[in-house]
Amino acid sequence: MEVIREWWAVLLGTVAGIVWLSRLEWRGLNNEKEIKRLWTQRKEDLDNAAAARRETNDVLREIRQDIKALLTMQGGKKE
Known about the structure:
Elements: H1 2-76
């Protein structure tokens, strides 16, 4: 019992240090998971944006072809 009384501060400090290091490791692991999730989210967002751009470009290409066709038809008639 005397040993505990003499060393209680050291033991308490050691336990507190172990708890603190465990919390630090847990935070690091959670941050790593969050970073991986964010990279996955970013990849999905980039893929969705690319798909939207392709779709927009297809619509614009179709509109351009329609305009060319209308101009060709209009240009062929003489008034």
